[in-house]
Amino acid sequence: MVKKSIIMVVLLSALSADSYIYEHNCLSCHKQLSFDLETIYFKYLLKYSDEISVKSALIDFLKAPNADTSVMPKEYINSFGLKQKTTLNPRELKEAVDFYWDKYTVFGKLK
Fold it and tell me: Do the beta carbons of residue 20 and residue 26 sit within 8 Å?
């Protein structure tokens, strides 16, 4: 019983840390933009189609933002510019992208 409790606390702490990284570093800025993160998620999904490809493309873009690899419309980039390169370390970036994927994915959630 004690082992189960410890495992639950560790898992909840890990989820809470991922959520914090995402909310503090991603959501805080995107709340103010005209394209929300859910819209961007579906643009990535439409272009890259699967979890591994979406996550890889998103991580690559966040490390080195480039108009050619952006899923945003060119008009949006011309008006607002590209985001700055991420300041997250590789572990934080992976955790934030994993949380982002889990938050918006519909795979396995539809009945």
Answer: no
Residue 110 lies in a domain: no
- pTM of this structure: 0.74
Domain coverage including residue 79: 2-104
Give the tens place of pLDDT for each residue, 90-101.
Answer: 999 999 999 989
Provide CB contacts within 8 A for 69, sequence distance 6+: 57, 60, 61
Percent of the chain surpassing pLDDT 90? 42
- 27 part of a folded domain: yes
Q: Nearest CA to 43 among 104, 107, 1, 95?
A: 104
Distance from chain centroid for Cα 80: 20
Locate the DSSP E strands across 11-106. none
- Number of domain units in the chain: 1
